[in-house]
Amino acid sequence: MLRLDCPFCGTRDEAEFRCGGDAHVERPGQDVSDATWADYLFNHDNPKGLHLERWCHVFGCGQWFNVARDTLTHEIHAVYYMGEAAPERYR
After folding, report:
1. What are the residue boundaries of the structural domains of the chain, listed by start?
2. Is 0.70 topped by the overall pTM?
3. What superfamily in CATH does domain 3-23+34-90 come from?
């Protein structure tokens, strides 16, 4: 089982969390085409290796945070607060 380090509550089992998708994705503005909006909603990266993700501790503090995780090994490389830039070596 994957174990995540909630920056607010400490290390917990994956079952307490929900992945919210890619981190640092900018939402399109209001005046965009349907194609641009559809691309934002339905097309996401699915990389092998390092990936920056948003996670929420739904069965704990309810806070969102970012995780740098390897999608092949599930190794957690970094956990950092929402609104912060990704650590330099993971950009």
Report:
1. 3-23+34-90
2. yes
3. Folate-binding superfamily (3.30.2270.10)
75-82's contacts with Cβ under 8 Å and 24+ in sequence apart are 76/2, 76/3, 76/4, 76/5, 77/50, 79/4, 79/5, 79/6, 79/7, 80/7, 81/7, 82/54
90 band by pLDDT with thresholds 50, 70 and 90? confident
| Residue position matching structure tokens 């599930």 | 74
> What digits encode the pLDDT tens for the residues 19-78?
999 999 889 998 999 999 999 999 988 889 999 999 999 999 999 999 999 999 999 999
Exposure string of 36-54, with b = 16+ CB inside 10 Å and e = fewer, is: eeeeeeeeeeeeeebbbbb
